Amino acid sequence: VTPMQMVRAYAGLATGILPNIRAVHSIDGRELVSEGRRLPIDEHNLRIVHGAMDAVANHPDDKLWRKALAEEKLGARFICKTGSADYDDDGIVPKYDDAENFLGYEKGVRKHTWVVGWLPAENPKLVVAAFVHDTSTTSTHSSAYLMSQFLTRPEIQAYLEEVK
């Protein structure tokens, strides 16, 4: 799938309505109507999915990547899912010792990683995807940090303040 398809699917999960994709918001100053169709998913089941996805970024443990996506860091509660897909199990990856000193390269697994989600959790205004192509780490050590860097940019923070 493409990042746009993932964002569309997550917008549907966030709101219960699968939106049609549009490239522009308005033409000649006339706003285009945003259309979509209700997903055939019971509200109870959507709440279960939301709860599970909420735990990805907001579980109260001390994992660093979770802190990178936590409400305290972003200024809004982020609901997301991470994912990693191995595509080359005979690739070249960096090698580190226990102290995180770079030792060179070795054979290992290459992967693509994702984080897709929305915020604010309770009133979704922004659905985003971070995709890292060709890495040797999982999404929790690559795209999660990329997503955190994006969501903490001043422009994004200003937008989130505006839509609160």
Descriptors for this entry?
164 residues, single chain, 6 helices, two-stranded antiparallel ribbon, 35% helix
What does this structure look like?
The chain has 164 residues and is of the alpha+beta class. 35% of the residues lie in helices and 34% in strands. The chain has helices at 3-15, 43-58, 64-68, 71-74, 143-151, 154-163; strands at residues 17-19, 26-27, 30-31, 36-38, 79-96, 102-119, 126-135. Strands 5-6-7 form a three-stranded antiparallel beta sheet. The longest helix has 16 residues, at 43-58. It is globular and about 55 Å long.
Strand content: 25-35%
Order of helices and strands: HEEEEHHHEEEHH
Cα distance spanning the termini: 31 Å
Derived from helix and strand composition plus strand pairing, the structural class reads: alpha+beta
Give the fraction of residues assigned to helices. Answer: 25-40%
Oligomer: single chain
Q: Which of globular, elongated, flat, extended, rod-shaped describes the shape?
A: globular
Question: What is the number of helical segments per DSSP (H or I, 4+ residues)?
Answer: 6
- Give me the side-by-side strand order of the main sheet: 5-6-7
For the biggest sheet, the summary is: 3 strands, antiparallel
Number of strands: 7
Radius of gyration computed on alpha carbons: 18 Å
Which spans have pLDDT < 50 for at least 5 consecutive residues? none
Mean pLDDT: 90
